[in-house]
């Protein structure tokens, strides 16, 4: 098991993901505990990519409940269809928000969050959890993030 990340300085965003995702796969291989795996994935993304906030929300009944995360304290429960996370759950698709202040019904867990990408993971065809990544910069997420993080979500689905 890898216990430190190796991401070279000066890499492009795409190159960072290409270096990071295999390391995350190695980190979770053979570990059966979902909480442990999600905690390590959140840490790897935060420190490997330099994100402001990275965390998971797990579907529990009719709410998303905060799971492992890295960054400032966060909202604990989110209803389906509310905010970016609840909308991702309701739609079952990745949402990229260039400016969170322009997203109708955005839930501001931190006023320092400026842009966001939220992705679903599925179990038996239903959203089981979501990955929420925030930046303290406007327009910080793009197709490169969506493609790489969607690939990571397929890895996470294998853990569910």
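Sequence proposed for the structure above (160 residues):
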């Amino acid at each position: 098991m890898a216990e430190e990340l190796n991401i070279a300085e000066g890499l492009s965003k795409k190159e960072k993901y290409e270096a990071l995702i295999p390391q995350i796969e190695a980190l979770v291989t053979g570990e059966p505990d979902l909480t442990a795996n999600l905690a390590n994935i959140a840490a790897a993304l935060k420190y490997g990519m330099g994100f402001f906030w990275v965390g998971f929300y797990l579907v529990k009944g009719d709410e998303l409940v905060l799971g492992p995360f890295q960054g400032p304290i966060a909202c604990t429960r989110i209803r389906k269809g509310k905010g970016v996370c609840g909308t991702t759950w309701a739609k079952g698709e990745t949402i990229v928000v260039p400016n969170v202040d322009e997203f109708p019904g955005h839930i501001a867990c931190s006023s320092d969050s400026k842009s966001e990408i939220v992705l679903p993971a599925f179990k038996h065809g239903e959203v089981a959890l979501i990955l929420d990544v925030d930046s303290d910069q406007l327009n910080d997420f793009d197709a490169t993030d969506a493609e790489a993080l969607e690939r990571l979500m397929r890895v996470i689905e294998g853990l569910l």
